[in-house]
Amino acid sequence: MADNSIVREQLAIGIDIGGTGTKFGIVDHDGNVLFNGEISTRTHDDVNGFINELHVELSKLIEKAGGIGQFKGIGVGAPNGNYYTGTIEYAPNLPWKGIIPLAKLIEAKFKLPVTLTNDANAAAIGEMMYGAAKGLRDFIMITLGTGVGSGIVANGQLIYGHDGFAGELGHTIIIPDGRMHPGTGKRGSLESYASATGVKYTTIELLETTTEPSMLRSIPKEEIDSKKVYEAAIQGDALARHVYEYTGRILGLALANAVMFSSPSAIVLFGGLTKAGDLILKPTREHMEANLIQVFQNKVKILISHLKESDAAILGASALAWEKR
Amino acid sequence: MADNSIVREQLAIGIDIGGTGTKFGIVDHDGNVLFNGEISTRTHDDVNGFINELHVELSKLIEKAGGIGQFKGIGVGAPNGNYYTGTIEYAPNLPWKGIIPLAKLIEAKFKLPVTLTNDANAAAIGEMMYGAAKGLRDFIMITLGTGVGSGIVANGQLIYGHDGFAGELGHTIIIPDGRMHPGTGKRGSLESYASATGVKYTTIELLETTTEPSMLRSIPKEEIDSKKVYEAAIQGDALARHVYEYTGRILGLALANAVMFSSPSAIVLFGGLTKAGDLILKPTREHMEANLIQVFQNKVKILISHLKESDAAILGASALAWEKR
Prior knowledge:
Chain A has 325 residues and is α/β, with parallel strands linked by helices. Chain A is built from 8 helices and 12 strands. Chain A has a 5-stranded mixed sheet. The longest helix of chain A has 25 residues. The radius of gyration of chain A is 20 Å and the shape is globular.
């Protein structure tokens, strides 16, 4: 029970840095997101400009929540974020190149302790504490957004690896010599197919290499995006449905490989691509099962995150702040 | 320090069941294999016949070591062995099909407590306790024998997964729609290429689809095996060297994917294929690095097990017996 006579830091800040947008929220001990906001990740080529804008926006929320004295700390989820060093290193989907001491920079600006991890790891922690993975000791979280991230939990613990960078399932090679990833220079990675960007390129490829009729043919290629493909698919457009079938085939293969690696009881999917529902889930499940050896078949649940839009990552990131010292 | 005035069980039995042969040994607390032996895994289609033969052979060693009273227990490593249930389930490379309650059967025969795990998991424990992985908290053990097995250690713990079957890297799909695995019915798995059997089939494929001169052309195809390919390669046979180059290309890709999953500080390789030394290691290293995104490059050591022939698995299996209760 809460002892209200003791003054204590009751709030944490969770920040989720994505390839496109950065979401942040003020979270209480029970996992309620009290206030939240968002800025673009891509406005500033210099990380300091980004942190300044973040500080301006978050300061408004901090004031609303009773001032900086209420806060225990800040947790940050970011692509290629390193839990051990607090740095972002060579993140292919962020505008800041090389090694960025992000935790230190945010700490200096906000005067609060900062813990950083990979954005998908943060989401996994959020799902484990408040979401679809509550009570699970072995699961894999996969975020299907602009890019593809993952967080792996085994024996009830997040797997960080020797250097803090474990869980880059999005960069595993699923189609050798396949589609080029412009950010990494590697061919055939999961992220090149099972992301919003991947869906866009698959659609353009199908439009260019087939004569299948499609309402998407009336849209200039530069304007095709995953949202338009989704809208065409739910209206029954066959080509758009083939895009999801193809994407699910590759995602299903990647999930099968992940299952044969760490044998989770569930895979939690999160992010824009999951909004397509059975259009993507049905082929994903089918091709996962088809690629599993018998001992793994019909055992692994594919769950869709039911946490509110991006809350998983904000909640997970904020959970890091409670953990800190 | 040992207190010799106290009579205690000082010995354990380690059993390593492989696709071809089953090795066993009597191990003391310091990891010395005092006595050991081997039988074929393939003589008996009925698992009870196999256990009877194992009992006859091991009883001789048990007598030599001072009788059953000296023994704490038995640890068994076997393909598809389940740590939680003590069963072997649907092992594609073993003659016994379905779900076999192996631990229970051995326990009944030997009247000693039995702990079972995956053969590669047992090898990983052996390497961690006595071998190349001593002191490592994050590594992956890969056994390249008749088949391909793996054991994954993260945060200093072996990853068993929710059902005890984690670490089946050999069955992950590396080449979609690739070579058929006769045991699993799946196409393009690592095991179909980076195993003794895989080397044999790659050689036959190269002999059939190219006109490259090779001393292997004088051997009837049915008689080609990985040993003959190795002998040709060390004599400079170009086709045999291409076999290793091709095998290393696929193994390297699989290692890159494994690294991006759990970010180990080292990968320990073990088994027949590693005897080819740089013939296989050089292309494996090159293609692993080529498929890694920057943040993982030039960090992961590829180590060769230096434990004596199969001792890793016997030692690892025996270590399970010390653990037990």
